[in-house]
Design brief:
CATH topology of the domain at 12-96 and 161-249: Rossmann fold
GO molecular function: ATP binding
Domain ABC transporter: 12-242
Number of strands: 10
Radius of gyration: 18 Å
CATH class of the domain at 12-96 and 161-249: Alpha Beta
Family: Belongs to the ABC transporter superfamily.
Keywords: ATP-binding, Nucleotide-binding, Transport
Number of helices: 8
Protein name: ABC transporter ATP-binding protein
Order of helices and strands: EEEHEEHEHHHEHEHEEH
Bound molecules: adenosine-5'-triphosphate
Largest sheet: 6 strands, mixed
Structural class: alpha/beta
CATH architecture of the domain at 12-96 and 161-249: 3-Layer(aba) Sandwich
CATH superfamily of the domain at 12-96 and 161-249: P-loop containing nucleotide triphosphate hydrolases
């Protein structure tokens, strides 16, 4: 008789994560977990702690307390593994203006352990998938905002990470590219990639996410599957949380 296979750990687990910024709590006691193939939309008003949470997950900031596990391992102790398993698109898609599009992908690939024909294949497939092939030799410094955003996305997903961490991925994209991005995220999720995306666009969440988390004043106020009644229900939940905070402050 075959022994039952041990269940794999979640792709991402946050346990009671706390992080202060400028002496104030930006993220307080946040716990959540994400399985392979799930797409989680992270919502919250300005300053709620979304970007800080994503930077903690991506390993760019260290938590003051609590644990962050990637595929079951605390990645503070495994920074090289975290880099290979995570793709991160930070807010505003920071790029090197003096490098071309192709050079960006090569640099990101090498930093994540790709080289030789593996890197060539990954780079060419990503240029094609993100419709950047014709821009391969162009300097990042002269790209349009939407092209910059697409290059940032390409750098994040080039090495096929298990977890994709995206801060406002649809920023500056035209409506055609927004639809293409939705298709890309659904395709990645269907192939087992876990995705966490922060956005102010509730329509993006209802279009691509299967779960929603809402942060408010650094705490996680809501974490649930997207309901069948979609947009209207999400809008009500979001405003209830945002306005309750304002009523208390008034
Ligand atoms: N570099 C920083 N130094 C000091 N405080 C910061 C820094 N970045 C963010 N904060 C503070 O941390 C808190 C959370 O900010 P964060 O950027 O994570 O929120 P957010 O939900 O991403 O906001 P937005 O929707 O406006 O991008 C805010 O109070 C913010 O002022």
């Amino acid at each position: 008789m075959n022994a039952p296979k041990p269940a794999s750990p979640p792709v991402l687990q946050l346990e009671q994560v706390v992080r202060h910024r400028a002496g104030r709590p930006a993220v307080r006691d946040v716990s959540l977990s994400l399985e392979a193939g799930q797409v989680l939309g992270l919502l919250g008003v300005n300053g709620a702690g979304k970007s800080t949470t994503l930077a903690l997950i991506a390993g760019a900031l260290r938590p003051d307390s609590g644990a962050i596990r990637l595929q079951g391992q605390d990645f503070l102790e495994h920074p090289e593994r975290a880099g290979r398993a995570i793709g991160w698109l930070p807010e505003g898609a920071p790029l090197w203006p003096e490098l071309t599009v192709r050079e960006h992908l090569d640099a990101h690939g090498r930093l994540r352990g790709l080289n030789g024909t593996d890197l060539d294949r990954a780079r060419d497939a990503t240029l094609e998938r993100l419709e950047l092939k014709d821009l391969g030799d162009r300097l990042a410094g002269v790209l349009s905002q939407g092209q910059r955003q697409r290059l940032g996305l390409a750098c994040a997903l080039l090495h096929r990470p298990a977890l994709l961490v995206l801060d406002e991925p649809a920023n500056a994209l035209d409506p055609v590219q927004v639809v293409a991005l939705r298709g890309l995220l659904r395709e990645l999720a269907a192939n087992g990639t876990a995705v966490i995306l922060s956005t102010h666009q509730l329509t993006e969440v209802t279009a691509v996410c299967d779960r929603v988390a809402i942060l408010h004043e650094g705490t996680l106020r809501y974490d649930a599957p997207l309901r069948a009644d979609g947009h209207a229900a999400l809008e009500k939940t979001f405003f209830d949380i945002a306005m309750a905070g304002r009523a208390q402050a008034a």
